[in-house]
Design brief:
- The chain is mainly beta and 169 residues long.
- It is 0% helix and 30% strand.
- The chain has no helices and 22 strands.
Length: 169
């Protein structure tokens, strides 16, 4: 059941299914596509964002425009997701099975990804599935994250590499 109490939405041209669970004071820009997900108190979801079923967004999270948060992604509280950030959830993506037919849900395994509290993911980063990004970690813009990022660590590049710890100069 949809709970939109306190949700302030610019929902013209948006698609929000009845099974989305909203916390209090969630703000939505227009042109969002939300289904089967949950969004915590005080979060902001920017324009042209898609959040799929079985994804969760914590409290006071800011998701900028054109981000894609797929099934299996769990985002903790106070996280920043930059413009154009893409998450994945399939280790071996294929459109068809061995018989050349489109794969069905039964032929696919969702691989979860977790983003820790107060982490920050820069614009246009790609986050491959099956990894964890630790609390207070920072992922640089344009990075491709292929393995776990430890708490308080700054990574950047393709593939993302450790630059330093947060607070080190």
């Amino acid at each position: 059941m949809r709970s939109n109490m306190g949700c302030k939405a610019g929902i013209d041209f948006s698609r929000i299914s009845a099974d989305v669970k909203f916390g209090k004071d969630v703000r939505l820009a227009g042109f969002v596509n939300l289904y089967g997900c949950s969004i915590g108190d005080g979060s902001f979801i920017g324009p042209f964002v898609e959040i799929q079923k079985d994804a969760s967004v914590g409290k006071r999270v800011k998701v900028q425009s054109h981000a894609f948060i797929c099934s299996g992604v769990e985002i903790a509280d106070e996280v920043f997701i930059g413009h154009g950030v893409m998450f994945t959830n399939d280790l071996l993506p294929r459109a068809t099975n061995k018989n050349g037919e489109f794969k069905t849900a039964d032929e696919w395994v969702c691989v979860p990804t977790k983003v820790g509290k107060r982490a920050s993911i820069g614009n246009n980063a790609t986050i491959l599935c099956g990894i964890s990004i630790g609390d207070n970690a920072i992922v640089g813009a344009g990075s491709v994250v292929v393995k776990d990022v430890s708490a308080g660590t700054i990574v950047a590049g393709n593939p993302a590499r450790i630059l330093r710890k947060v607070g080190e100069e």
